[in-house]
Amino acid sequence: MKQAIVNAVVHTGDKIVENGVVIVENGIVISVQNEIPNDIEKIDLGGSHLAAGFIDIQINGGEKFYFSQTPNEETIQDIYNSSLKYGTTHVLPCLISSSKETILTGIEAVRDYMKKYNNGVIGMHLEGPFLNPLRRGAHSMDQVRKPTNEELKEIIEKGKDVIKVITIAPECFTEEQLNMLIESGITISIGHSTITHKEAQFYFSKGINLVTHLFNAMTQFGHREPGLVGAVFENEEVYAPVILDGVHCDYAAAKVAYKLKKEKFFLISDATFLGRKVSNFKWENFDAHLENGFYRNEDGNLAGAAISMAEAVQNAYNHLHVTADEAVKMASSRVAAAIGMQDKIGKIKVGFPSSFVKFNADLSRIETLDLT
After folding, report:
1. Handedness of CA 268, 77, 93, 55 (dihedral sign)
2. Distance between CA atoms of 294 and 269, rounded to whole angstroms?
3. CB–CB of 318/329 below 8 Å?
4. What is the largest CA-CA distance in the chain?
5. What phi and psi, each to the nearest 5 degrees, are found at residue 283?
6. Neighbours of 246 (CB within 10 A)
7. Beta bridge partners of 127
8. Is 270 known to be catalytic?
9. Does the predicted TM-score (pTM) go above 0.90?
10. Among the options 270, 325, 343, 370, which is catalytic?
């Protein structure tokens, strides 16, 4: 059945269409135009703004369940349903450093879920376990480890069509192992790493063009050693996602990063849980409790974020002082480009899914409009 979204300011990801009309059919955009058709059902937005739904490539839990603890269909559904409440229509559930058995279970759970539902769950993000223990953050020391050829081969073989992003500390890999991962086609993100500026440029030269939560769990910018942060700033091809909650990254630092990275700057939630409905959480050696609206562990360190993508977009508008169009791109088209899905999601474009966000001019109200 065809439907026409009318009386909208349409942010396509490429341009803004005033008094735009978006025609959708069977969950797909079939036209973006100005003429209002007479013969199909109309959804009147009353002058509201419309953009592609947000994409969150790093989300650990929904409103109830934590993916690394219970990597199953119920948790994935919780993450997806919870995300829809906050403008996010496409997600990569994130599995943090875990045993090989848990990783393989997570891969199979996501694969089975994607086959069964074919919705906005587009794969998974494997954050670890091949991280530098000196920059492990809230990851359990018991699970952080160097890869073996055998374990890496098995994860690649069983996860190459499910794992969209893998966060690694490349200094923990042999050249053979790194090439194995690069050749797999999985998007590699550098994070939880102690590499220097010079080392980072070497890894970027091998085709890696993404880092995990810029500034957090990596070598910082200094005037004598620019670190991984400096290498990201210097390299125009590298994407820089930020947890924009004001604590993981000060807004002033984010503003500098945005000025330098421009269209390569984008947003993630890295939410431990969404909606701040889980106040205390304990799983094996990982713990988190809500403290002044942020998740921290027993040591007082940050233990994942508590924001949604909608809040991140609002923070970009209010604290980075960008336009509403720019803020929504940071959560949609630019995220899609960072994971090589720019031809499938992240824009309002013919052939793309009819999953949208509806918002007002100052982004103080953001609602999901999913017609898939």
Report:
1. negative
2. 12
3. no
4. 66
5. -145, 115
6. 15
7. 96, 167
8. yes
9. yes
10. 270
Query: What element of type H or E holds 41?
Result: strand 41-44
Residue type, 65: F
Give whole-number Cα distances, 362 to 94, 307, 314, 358, 359, in Å.
Answer: 30, 19, 8, 12, 8
* Residue length of the chain: 372
What are the CA-CA distances from residue 84 to residues 30, 127, 287, 370 (Å)? 23, 23, 26, 8
Instruction: Write the single-letter amino acid at 144.
Output: V
Contacts of residue 155, Cβ cutoff 8 Å, sequence gap at least 6: 100, 103, 104, 107, 126, 163
Distance CA(130)–CA(103), nearest Å, equals 12
| Residue 302 CB neighbours (<10 A) | 22
Confidence of residue 304 (pLDDT cuts 50, 70, 90): confident
Task: Please name which of 4, 25, 8 lies closest in space to residue 17, comparing C-alpha atoms.
Answer: 8
Integer Rg of the chain from CA:
20
pLDDT of residue 359: 98
Q: How many CB atoms lie within 10 A of CB 37?
A: 14
| Per-residue pLDDT, 301 | 83
Instruction: Give the relative orientation of helices 227-234 and 197-205 as an angle to the nearest 10 degrees.
Output: 40
Strand partners, 5: 22, 43
Residue pLDDT, tens place only, 128-150: 999 999 999 888 899 999 999 99
Round to the nearest angstrom and report the end-to-end CA distance of the chain.
11
Q: Which residues are CB-neighbours of 9 under 8 A, at least 6 positions away?
A: 16, 17, 18, 19, 20, 47, 48, 49, 50
